[in-house]
Write a structure and sequence with these properties.
249 residues; alpha/beta; Rossmann fold; two-stranded parallel sheet; 8 helices; 9 strands; 46% helix; globular
């Protein structure tokens, strides 16, 4: 794509955490960035902080049947979609035997089905352009077993598999699909969880060779790499951004 065309990105869950950091990076690189989320206040705060290149859309991606119209409206308004970062997701910490079918389905719905639905619809746009980059966000939960997150683990394992399947199908049409697998990153959510559980925090740091937690911008830089021409010959890859946690002992 020629450099004089301004790229358009969608970042789901772009109002906080990893999504906000990714949106911030994209804006710094001059990319028009549409952030989708459920919380109007978070999206408004992100817009206020990051400026005119941010375009917030309040939408709950678990409502699958509205996603085709959502993507069509984005294409009509912005003319193109060059990048999709599938960051939105939910977690649920429960003992395996306490997870109901409804609990499990709720996580799968947001973390897998919604990701599939928006990726499918955006792919249609990208196929007409014969170009695009889709970035999935996975997790250490897909790399090894973590207790009390069975549904989340299933969902993120599905994301890793979908990345490969989508890459094989879409790459011949100029669309690259890759995956970032964050390790333990300092966010409001993770800090709360780890600070309330010193034993878990020590375990995390103990098996992270670099010996400290990552920052949201570490993940954002990886997402930008996959979204940019720097990775033009990379597809179907999963990059652990984890300080070595997934290979640590």
């Amino acid at each position: 794509m020629s450099q004089n065309i301004q790229k358009v990105a969608i970042v789901t869950g772009g109002g906080s955490g990893l999504g906000l950091a990714t949106s911030e990076k994209f804006v710094k690189e001059g990319i028009k960035t549409i952030i989708i989320g459920r919380d109007p206040q978070k999206l408004a705060d992100a817009k206020a902080a990051l400026g005119e290149l941010i375009h917030p859309i309040v939408y709950d991606l678990s409502i699958l049947n509205g996603i085709p119209d959502l993507v069509t409206s984005i294409q009509q308004k912005f003319g193109r979609i060059d990048i999709l970062v599938n960051n939105a997701g939910i977690n649920m910490k429960k003992e395996l035997i306490d997870v109901s079918d409804e609990d499990f389905l709720q996580v799968i719905n947001t973390n897998v089905l919604a990701v599939f639905a928006i990726s499918r619809e955006v792919s249609k746009v990208m196929i007409t352009q014969q170009s695009g980059a889709i970035v999935m966000i996975s997790s250490m939960a897909a790399k090894y077993g973590i207790p009390k997150v069975i549904a989340y683990t299933a969902a993120k394992s599905a994301i890793e598999g979908m990345t490969k399947a989508m890459a094989v199908e879409l790459s011949p049409q100029g669309i690259r699909v890759n995956c970032v697998a964050p390790g333990f990153i300092v966010t409001e959510m993770s800090s709360k969880a780890l600070n309330n559980d010193p034993e878990r925090k020590n375990k995390v740091l103990g098996r992270t060779p670099m010996g400290f937690l990552g920052e949201t911008m570490d993940v954002a830089e990886a997402a930008y790499y996959f979204a940019s021409d720097a990775s033009k010959y990379v597809t179907g890859a999963s990059l652990a951004v984890d300080g070595g946690n997934s290979i640590g002992f």
